[in-house]
Amino acid sequence: MSHPGNGRLLIPRHERKILVDLVVKKMKANDPAKGFFGIFVQDPAAWIGIKRACSFSFGVLSDICPKAIALAESNSVKNQLQVECRVGDCCSLFE
Q1: Strands annotated E in the chain
Q2: What does pTM read for this prediction?
């Protein structure tokens, strides 16, 4: 995944890689037909990592920052991933 590198965005943290690795490992150990739904509020990069590793998964990318969602949308296109992106916090997504 890429980012503009202008210093205004956070570079993905080590903890995010650990989370993605754990979720991917668990998902691949289970029946893909069951699918997986996840909402990663304020961490769309984690969902893109999971979606890239487990194409059978589905979910919603969300963040309160429109620039973060724009970057996530750009990365999903670059990675040829079909994902849904929404600006908002956890509560507003379901109103």
Answers
A1: 37-41, 58-63, 84-87
A2: 0.65
